[in-house]
Design brief:
With about 250 residues, this protein is mainly beta. The chain is built from 1 helix and 13 strands. It has an 11-stranded mixed beta barrel. The longest helix has 12 residues, at about 1-15.
Length: about 250
């Protein structure tokens, strides 16, 4: 478990607010691209809404072309409430349609479609120190999986806990240019629909992100470009490289 101890150590050192729309995990691949468009709207002085849609694709067969295969489409709605100047909580509903590709014994490509409905909640603490902003987040996901024709998947339910810490550094006094680094570990238990059994609750993966964020002065938008390394597995982990770009439109109404 040396890898897990190392990950926990990184989390402690490198403290999620919604500074960017981070990529979803897409399993085994060499390179993945993630693009998203979001709308963030202040409802009042305490409540905020975030709606976004995103698209991801990935490379196959070691060709390192992140546009080779369409991998996922996401639609997400989240509401946030500010408790005080440091604490905030949120709840969300998400729909995801994901494609998985494999090859049969005849060398023919097989595509399987998984549909997912997800409900999650999180609580976030934010600490500001001059140009630095440190933000740890605890998030709990409840995931329900279906096949493309809405039949039960082999793994039909999953409960997942996510622990993320994020550091933001403002490059200017107006806070329009930012560097954002984050580290997140994920632990889960899943239900096998065929055997009617739950797996052990255990560590699954970690995600390490680094972003540059820019908010123009005369445009109600935020532009984010970044990289994520998805480290999957425990005893023999493997990494997946993500390139990501998203735009968040702010307070359009």
């Amino acid at each position: 478990m040396k890898e897990l101890k190392y990950i926990v150590f990184l989390l402690v050192l490198s403290l999620n607010v919604n500074a960017q729309l981070s990529p979803p995990g897409l399993g085994k691949a060499d390179v993945v691209q993630w693009s998203a468009l979001g709308v963030r709207q202040d409802i009042n002085d305490k409540w905020q809404s975030m709606t976004y849609t995103g698209w991801g694709s990935k490379s196959v067969d070691g060709k390192y072309n992140p546009l080779s295969k369409n991998a996922i489409w996401v639609l997400n709605q989240e509401f946030y409430k500010k408790i005080n100047k440091n604490w905030k909580y949120s709840f969300a509903l998400s729909y995801r349609r994901q494609n998985e590709y494999d090859t049969n014994d005849f060398g023919e490509e097989i595509k399987e479609v998984t549909q997912e409905f997800r409900v999650y909640g999180r609580i976030n603490y934010e600490l500001k120190l001059d140009k630095w902003k440190i933000s740890p987040t605890l998030r709990q996901d409840i995931r329900r999986f279906y096949t493309k024709d809405f039949k039960n998947s082999e793994e039909d339910w999953q409960f997942r806990s996510r622990f993320k810490l994020q550091v933001t550094y403002n490059l200017d006094e107006d806070e329009r240019h930012k560097l954002i680094g984050g580290a997140e570990s994920l632990f889960a238990t899943a239900h096998d629909s065929k055997n009617d059994e739950w797996s052990d609750f255990k560590y699954k993966e970690s995600r390490f992100t680094f972003y540059y964020s820019y908010s123009p002065q005369n445009i109600p938008a935020q532009f984010n470009i970044g990289y994520m390394n998805n480290l999957i597995g425990d005893s023999h982990p493997y990494g997946v490289n993500y390139v990501a770009f998203d735009i968040i439109l702010t307070n359009l109404f």
